[in-house]
Write a sequence for this structure.
């Protein structure tokens, strides 16, 4: 890598965890950060110079980063501000004036490029955009995936692709643009009612999409599209073109073209022809996709019932098995997937299950490995964060349970996390409220005790799509999630937590739907995750009567939803877990 940098006149090279589509979870072909470092977290950036190699990641991955980088020549740099590029600050402090920093244009968004240039200019450091720099050094690099694409029926998603495209075109007219380039995989999948298997856990496929008022062009490896589906797409006015031809076809564009700075990569932007007038504005489909329609909402309520039944099997199995033997974290993660796999419409995990026992629970995005996972026994705290992809929806739930009598400090922390969860779940707020304003409701009880958690309180969730779906969410600071206004029909997670390294992790997560309140001009949340919350970890002296009432009402709802579908002994187990307190 360093030899190639010398040949190219580059003093520092950026390797982000990304792909040409600005994906959170890229296909293995683009996991250069993981290949060069061994770090498997879902957020981070590698910076390589002739004398230093570093990984920059946020607080969710501090413990994981220390573990996975141990014994490597790569230094962990802990980012204090999640959205700020700390590696650029490092360049400014360590590189001499006039240096050159390189980055693959396909792996860098236009917004990132503009930000980096502005920051580096403070020390007269240049940003050099390169081609795919890793190709020359990454031996046996995995190919771009070619799994078949398939239809997602309207009976699930509630709106055909022609209607969605028409809505996009109508908004294009309002914005006075002739074409719209979409590069994000989940937006393309949503718009065209297609799904794929190119990325682990996210049912998307590698493609680009260009819409004008006359036609829609899907840039994709055509071998991925079955003949019958090609005919169907053609009938809906969707033209197929090879994935690799996107740059040459963009060079021929001669009209007003709408692009989104935060998701369009630099290489594609630079390929757009001189005859085009580029309009920098929003990604139209992203905001449409965030509002679930009545058909989707109906399915989401049902899919969470199915998910609750699967979790009942899994948690019952764990408790019974621990009476006879220990269970590894890895084994239990597999059991969760197995139980979900017995439900109709199951497609796979929505993310690799986080099963963190005792201190491993403090690793926020911990993933147990077969040879390294801890052994669970009947003591201590276990954090389980898992989810499923079903053709009728996506789930994501976290439960923290105690396997023995818990010490006072753990009960106090758990109860404050629950108070924050309830604070957000019961919020009634005026239309126009942003996620950052609501985030504080989930933190106040923790803040009162000088405690906090180093991640956002919630993220948008797709419909049989990405489990982390922009734009909305609950987060501190000035991130996109924090700035986005909550609207009726949005589907978001509610997951405050608290973590103590080498001791325990606590998180309680349900998914909530934004709905109209009975008060004119106000919104509220409906919780649609159905599974009991552990009451053995509660310090009841901290809870108000309203909070106890919420917990009892929630458990009454869980019992009403799940019990008709359960038989002995699962039904007796559920009755005990849902008993009033």
């Amino acid at each position: 890598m360093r030899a190639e940098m010398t040949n190219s006149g580059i003093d520092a090279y950026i390797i982000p965890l990304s792909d040409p589509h600005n994906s959170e979870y890229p296909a293995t072909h683009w996991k250069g950060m993981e290949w060069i470092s061994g770090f498997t977290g879902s957020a981070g950036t590698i910076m390589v110079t002739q004398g230093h190699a570093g990984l920059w990641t946020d607080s969710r991955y501090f413990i994981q980063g220390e573990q996975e980088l141990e014994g490597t020549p790569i230094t962990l740099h802990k980012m204090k501000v999640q959205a700020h590029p700390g590696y650029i600050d490092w360049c400014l402090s360590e590189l001499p004036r006039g240096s050159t920093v390189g980055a693959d244009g396909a792996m860098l968004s236009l917004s990132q490029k503009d930000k980096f240039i502005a920051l580096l200019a403070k020390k007269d450091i240049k940003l050099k955009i390169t081609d795919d720099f890793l190709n020359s050094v990454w031996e046996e690099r995995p190919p771009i995936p070619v799994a078949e694409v398939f239809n997602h029926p309207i009976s699930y998603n509630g709106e055909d692709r022609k209607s969605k495209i028409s809505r996009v075109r109508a908004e294009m007219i309002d914005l006075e643009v002739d074409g719209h380039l979409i590069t994000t995989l989940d937006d393309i999948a949503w718009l065209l009612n297609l799904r794929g298997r190119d990325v682990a856990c996210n049912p998307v496929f590698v493609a680009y999409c260009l819409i004008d008022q006359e036609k829609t062009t899907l840039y994709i490896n055509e071998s991925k599209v079955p003949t019958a589906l090609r005919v169907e797409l053609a009938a809906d006015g969707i033209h197929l073109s090879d994935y690799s031809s996107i740059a040459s076809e963009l060079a021929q564009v001669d009209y007003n073209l709408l692009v989104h700075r935060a998701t369009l990569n630099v290489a594609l932007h630079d390929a757009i022809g001189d005859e085009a007038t580029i309009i920098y504005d929003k990604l139209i489909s992203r905001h449409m996709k965030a509002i679930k329609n009545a058909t989707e909402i109906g399915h989401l309520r049902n899919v969470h019932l199915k998910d609750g039944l699967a979790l009942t099997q899994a948690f019952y199995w764990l408790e019974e098995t621990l009476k006879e033997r220990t269970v590894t974290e890895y084994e239990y993660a597999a059991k969760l997937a197995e139980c979900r796999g017995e439900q109709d419409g199951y497609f796979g995990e929505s993310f690799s299950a986080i099963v963190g026992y005792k201190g491993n629970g403090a690793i926020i995005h911990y993933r147990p490995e077969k040879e390294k996972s801890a052994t669970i026994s009947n003591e201590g705290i276990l954090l389980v964060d898992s989810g499923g992809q079903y053709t009728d929806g996506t789930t994501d739930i976290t439960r923290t349970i105690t396997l023995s009598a818990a010490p006072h400090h753990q009960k106090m922390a758990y109860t404050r996390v629950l108070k924050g969860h309830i604070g957000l779940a019961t919020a009634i707020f005026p239309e126009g409220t942003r996620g950052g304003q609501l985030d504080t409701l989930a933190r106040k009880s923790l803040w009162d005790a000088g405690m906090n958690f180093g991640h956002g309180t919630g993220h948008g969730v797709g419909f049989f799509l990405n489990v982390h779906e922009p734009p909305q969410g609950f987060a501190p600071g000035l991130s996109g999630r924090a700035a986005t206004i909550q609207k009726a029909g949005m589907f978001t997670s509610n997951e405050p937590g608290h973590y103590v390294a080498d001791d325990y992790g606590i998180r309680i997560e349900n998914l909530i739907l934004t709905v109209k309140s009975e008060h004119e001009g106000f919104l509220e949340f409906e919780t649609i995750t159905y599974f009991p919350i552990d009451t053995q970890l509660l310090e009841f002296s901290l809870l108000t009567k309203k909070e106890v009432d919420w917990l009892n009402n929630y458990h009454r709802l869980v019992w009403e939803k799940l019990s008709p579908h359960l038989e002995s002994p699962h039904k007796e187990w559920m009755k005990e877990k849902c008993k009033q307190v």
Remarks:
- The two ends are 61 Å apart (CA to CA).
- The mean pLDDT is 96.
- The first helix runs from residue 2 to 7.
- The first strand starts at residue 12 and ends at 16.
